[in-house]
Amino acid sequence: MFKFLFPGPLPVRTLTWLGLGLAGVLLLSVAYCAGHQPARDAARKAEAAATLADGRTRAVQDASTIRDAHEARTDQTRQDVKEAQDAVRQETDPARRDAVARQRLCNLNPGACPR
Q1: Which of 2, 20, 83, 84 could crosslink 104 through cysteines, CB 3.0-4.6 Å?
Q2: Backbone phi and psi for residue 114, each to the nearest 5 degrees, phi listed first
């Protein structure tokens, strides 16, 4: 029934050439995979480096934002203290001066004042 597919045993020479062809294909496949592995590794390393650099950039931006906010708060506190000192120094009445000082202290530090 299938004699046209399998007419009989194959000659040794044919088997040798088939074996060499199969070995060649196998060798080419291994060489291809080995050759592309460094390229894939390099691409992964480049992507990882870009991700790290991006993270560092964001961290620097966050630190800059925090530092700017801190400087703004510090400047505002210094301005408030200067205004409070000027207001206290302008008062001539000791009782009024104490009241102004207490009020300014409560404005600067609400936790220092009784409720």
Answers
A1: 84
A2: -70, 150
The maximal CA–CA distance of the chain, rounded, in angstroms, is 126
Q: Alpha helix locations (H) across the chain?
A: 12-90, 94-108
The pLDDT assigned to 113 comes to: 79
What average pLDDT does range 24-36 have in this prediction?
A: 85
Residue with tokens 């050439």: 17
Q: Are 84 and 99 in contact (CB under 8 A)?
A: no
Q: Is 6 left (phi over 0), alpha (psi -120 to 50) or beta?
A: beta
Pull the structure tokens for residue 52.
């790290």
DSSP-assigned letter for residue 4 = T
Kindly report, residue by residue over 67-114, the tens digit of the pLDDT.
999 999 999 999 989 998 998 889 889 899 998 888 888 888 888 777
Residue 58 burial (CB count, 10 A)? 10
Q: Distance (Å, rounded) from C-alpha 88 to C-alpha 99? A: 9
